[in-house]
Each structure stands twice: as C-alpha cells, then as structure tokens.
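Question thread 4412

I'm putting together a teaching handout and wanted feedback from people who do this every day. The idea is simple: show students a protein as raw sequence, then show them the structure tokens that encode its fold, then repeat with a second protein so they can compare. Below is the first pair exactly as I plan to print it.
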Amino acid sequence: MNFYCVRHGRTNYNDLGLCNDDPARDVYLTEAGIAQAQSAALALREVAFERILVSPLPRTRQTAEIVNRYRIISQRLVMIRSGRA
C-alpha cells in the first residue's frame, strides 16, 4: 500500500502571515493555492487512490477536490486544536 501526503495549497491566511486551525474561519485557497493543487493533480494523475483523507479544514477539502474530483473524500483525519486564535 502506498501513501501520498499533500499539503493544502496557499491560502489567504498564508498571505497575511496568519495560522489557523479553526474550521469555522473563512480560510480558502488563493489563486496561487488553486494552481498548486492543480499542479499536484497533474503530478498524481496516474495514481489510483483508494481514498483521500482530509482534516475538517475547508482549505484541505478544497485542495483534495481539485486533486481528485471523482473519488471518495473522507474527513476522518482530525487535527489537534492548538487553542490559538
């Protein structure tokens, strides 16, 4: 079994120098982040994923949807919340 780890693309918070671990905050991929996800999709186009796991953060789901629009995406990966704003 092979595992592929991909980090989400660049976000509006990256551009502001901010960190976020709250799924309720409006953190989304920028145009650069979308391009990064599309580049990952191109690089991984020949890989037959069984499943894609993402955290509950919208930017991770957005990245996963770009990387692979036609497979099951699960939000079973839960991050440890840091308690920071």
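The second pair follows. I'd like the answer to focus on this one:
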Amino acid sequence: MLQIIFNEISAAEISSLNTIDQLELLNQFKVKHEDLDQTGDEKTFGTIERDGGKLYRYKSKDYRIYFEVTNKNVIVHRVVHKNTLKDFLFRSNLPVSEDKALSESKNFWKLIEEGEKAQKV
C-alpha cells in the first residue's frame, strides 16, 4: 500500500464532505502498485495522460479522486463530486470515454494544476 498525501485543495475538498461520506470514501480508496497496472474490465483506476505524465482517477459512488503516484506516495490533487464531470461531459456531448474527454479538456487540466501547485498537508 502506498502513502496517501493530500494537498491543501484536496484536503479542503474532502473536509467539506460530511463525516460519513469522508469515512466511506477514504475506506474505499486504497492504492496498490498491482492495481495501477490492471487493464480491461478489472481496472480499478482510470488513467488520464498528458505530456508523458499519468494521472489516475478513482471513482466512488458520488466522488472522483484525481491523483498521481510518485515513488511510494499517492499525491491527491482533487476530490470532486461526480456530477461536476458528468455535467461537463453532457454539455460537451463528446462521443468518447470520460478519460479521453478529460485528457483533452483544458479546464480539467487547469483544475488539476491548481491541485498540483497547492501545498501538501
């Protein structure tokens, strides 16, 4: 298991959830190297790539966690409600997968870059 590190933004986002949602989300969010390499239907995490870098997406019931893996750490950049992404995809009416659509969205990468620049807590 890798150590999970939240930055200021992702910590604030998860802190804004009610306690039960926080506990459920954190209980489900477990990252192991073998899970990152899965493909096909058994895939635990979505992947979004840009400029040779890889970002991972974890889906829970109502939330999406976007993170990167560095050495033995999972750096959580953002924790967002699923409707944020669904609304984006619906409005964009894109006939591609969610991961593909996000990898091509400047607004999505701006959201992630804010998280990357935030201090780690």
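Top answer:
Good format. For the second protein you could add a caption like this: The helical segments are 8-15, 19-28, 33-36, 82-92, 98-103, 106-117. The chain has a mean pLDDT of 82.
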